[in-house]
Design brief:
226 residues, mainly alpha, globular
């Protein structure tokens, strides 16, 4: 016996259209939608020392790409901050200390003025505050120097690094705007902190290393382009 739907409910609230059940399909009613849930990419955890190494390798690629042999990308005055990236984390206080050290290292990225997009005097005054941030300067440089085809990957990597900094700020200053620390951790793929601060730190390290590796790959692609 053939089965037929006699009544139906419309998730969009179109009571007039739901009467024509035969058109409730793709290509039927123009309000028909298919919802696709995109699975969050799996996080590949990294060894404790890999994050610090990722900064070092990015620094080498940066110098090679922009002929900055005598100008390090990272303005470091001590080795304590990079060394802290390899330390474990078990409590919220330790997580705060680790992510603070990481954000501090990101803030120490130094992009030479000569690498930025040339600006008129008016543009320099307009963008003065914008170009004080380390990630803003890096993004400006990479958008100016590297082909547009590479910008999407660069944007994703910089966005991850920004999120790490925002998570640090939310944690240290109790910022709740935009969902606060919980929202920033979720943006990084962390859903169980608290209480799993150890796991959260592992994911932060992995996401950051992934972003730094992406930037390095884009720089090397630029270097190797004929």
């Amino acid at each position: 016996m053939e089965r037929r739907a006699m009544t139906a409910m419309c998730d969009e609230g179109h009571t007039d259209r739901v009467n024509i059940i035969s058109k409730c399909h793709a290509g039927g009613h123009d309000c028909w939608q298919r919802l696709v849930e995109i699975e969050e990419p799996a996080v590949i955890l990294v060894p404790p020392l890999e994050l610090a190494e990722a900064f070092d390798v990015l620094d080498a690629a940066w110098r090679l790409a922009f002929d900055q042999k005598k100008k390090s990308l990272l303005a470091l005055s001590t080795v304590a901050t990079p060394a802290a990236l390899s330390l474990p984390c078990a409590t919220r206080a330790e997580f705060e200390a680790r992510i603070s050290d990481l954000a501090d290292l990101i803030d120490r990225i130094k992009v030479d003025d000569a690498l930025l997009r040339p600006r008129s005097k008016d543009e320099e005054e307009r963008d003065e505050d914008l170009l004080k941030g380390s990630l803003n300067r890096m993004l400006d440089c990479l958008h100016y120097r590297l082909p547009a085809l590479q910008h999407a990957a660069i944007n994703r990597a910089i966005r991850t690094l920004r999120t790490v900094r925002q998570a640090r700020n939310a944690e240290q200053h109790g910022i709740t705007e935009g969902g606060g620390l919980t929202a920033k951790l979720r943006d990084l793929g962390i859903y169980d902190a608290p209480p799993n601060w150890s796991g959260a730190w592992d994911v932060v390290r992995a996401r950051t290393a992934e972003a730094l590796t992406t930037l390095r790959h884009e720089l090397m692609a630029y270097v190797n382009t004929p």
